[in-house]
Amino acid sequence: MERRTFVRYIGTLGTVALLMPDLLACNTAKSKISVNRLGAPLDRGHLLRGNFDFASDYPVEKMEIPAVIIGGGISGLSTGYHLQKKGFTDFLLLELNETVGGNSGFGENRYSKYPLGAHYLSLANPQNRALIDFLKEQGLITKEENGRQYYLEDFLCHAPDERLLFKGVFHEGLVPEYGISPETHAEITRFFDQMKVLKEAKNTDGIDLFNIPISQASINSDLEALDKITFKDYLNDQGYHSEELHWFLDYCCRDDFGAGSDKVSAWAGIHYFAGRKAKPGNTDPTTVLTWSEGNGFLTNILEKSIREQVKTHVLVYSVEELDDHVLVQAIDLKAQKKLHIRAESAVISSPSYVAKHILKSPSWPQSYFEGIHHNPWLIGIVVVDEIPEGNGTPLAWDNVKFGTKGLGYVSDRHQEFGQHRDKHVISVYLALDREDEQTERRKLFQMTDEEMCDLVVSELTSMHPLIEQHIQSISFQRWGHGMVTPYPGALAKYQEYLRLKSHAKRVHLAHTDYSSYSVFEEGFDLGLLAANKLVNHEA
After folding, report:
1. Cys-Cys with 274: which of 38, 65, 199, 279 at CB 3.0–4.6 Å?
2. What percent of the chain has pLDDT over 90?
């Protein structure tokens, strides 16, 4: 089945792989575990709140350039990549952090690289030619025959890819299938049969109702109605009541959207299943491409193509659209100077909560940015000398326990060839959605290292009671604004985006916040569409 993704920008300066110089101690019942925090100080991102006194004496550098991209996440990198592919190289990409990638960044310790967020790419839908061509260029798709793509097997997720701890035994896959009642089995079968039907649903012009990227889908009144209720309400209305199915679908929502089925739009919950239509020639369509560094592998490819145009350590605090140009004002934090950039066009690829602070444009009213939600996440990168074996399926890439609110852990060294591991590196994912997002965000950044350690260790010991004694260290990555969370109304917000976008002149928005689904495919597509807008404007 399609798996988790998690992609967005933290809005702080400094390499996301930078370790704090002093290791702290996590005191637990049985051991002391060395811990450290990844990322940069929060005050860098919070400079957008308007206190620029520190730069009052900085000199001003003025420049003119045809195009500026603000934000170096996947959407911004994709914009630059596609501009370069079209022969348009006279642009700058400005990024606050030391490195690009946003939530598709990665870190590295002495044993392995590891993702700091997004950690896989689903196989491409047949209509997504831009992504297929990109993967072919990089050798990740080796050939196409009869409308099917053949993927480089080195990067297809190795077996076993997923396992679920259910009733004391690890079972392959994440859908509860063993030890369930005939009634539950019938419900699960009916649900997936229903998703297969919706996967093929089209409008009167033959365009899919569900597709990824969403720009290749059609929206009708039925989908608008689904967007007004939660996924859980939809399931109940359809007569789905089994505990096992409801847990699985709630897990899927928290895993891909950062919130449970009782909060997520029914349209988004269905889109999760019905939007995937890959037709590979050499693997199962639900397989994913993955790497130790997660989607940092793809980030590096995109960044390499436009390295000369990327400028990091730059805080953009104003983007003003005027009649005949766009004025971008920024502070180069490393060079300690102000930048006043006159551009013909600009693409804001920063998330919505950044765009609303910096953008002044008649095309994009401030009210548009309200109602876009982001739940916080905590990721623990854990080094262990051993993972105690459980009953059933051996260690998989993704490892989850039934019945909990946790999302389990990913084995970051799963793709390495050979069985011997001197140390295991695993990433524990925790979506913080018990209370409202503002409360959870505040709680996350008030947590002590010991409190974060307890959350991560508790998630692991729920699956492996003896694992604590094998833990060597934990590194914490906090995302105050994780992926966009598609609450009811998310599809309506996307439709509003399309309306505003159709009238935009010099400033364009390209970020997965606006497509309501934070996956690589959406960011890549939004970058392509933004690049097309810029090239057409210059022409």
Report:
1. 199
2. 86
